[in-house]
Design brief:
Length: 128
């Protein structure tokens, strides 16, 4: 833990970095997740709240895991173009009211110096 977000020998984020970032979200590893972010990062959560700066982003990530303690990500697809990237995913969880959730979504990223500067999440509830 801790070094997964460091990009070695390059200042560019790779698809492998985005996969490792997604895996850390699936494992609910806040400390590992935070290693991928710049110090002045921005996280725009799927529910619309905006968290700015590493301390606030950590709070937002922790809040997400508190809301969805059994949440899991699957079906990840990632791509990068220059200093931008996208991760697509499926998320399943139990809402605080006991309702089972399944949603598809994506994260739009902006990168700076080999780290995530902006993570903007979008999600759509799936009805089975």
């Amino acid at each position: 833990m801790g070094d997964e977000g460091k990009v070695t020998g390059t200042s560019e984020v790779t698809v492998e970095n985005l996969k490792a970032f997604a895996d850390a979200w699936d494992r609910h590893e806040v400390d590992t997740i935070m290693t991928f972010f710049t110090d002045d990062c921005v996280f725009i959560a799927g529910w619309g709240e905006r968290f700015v700066g590493k301390e606030r982003v950590r709070e937002g990530v922790s809040e997400f895991f508190t809301k969805f303690p059994d949440g899991r990500f699957s079906d990840g697809h990632h791509f990068i173009s220059g200093n931008r990237g996208v991760s697509e995913w499926t998320f399943t969880a139990t809402a605080p009211d006991g309702v089972k959730l399944m949603m598809t979504g994506c994260d739009l990223f902006a990168f700076e110096n080999g780290k995530i500067a902006v993570k903007n999440a979008f999600r759509k509830d799936r009805i089975s």
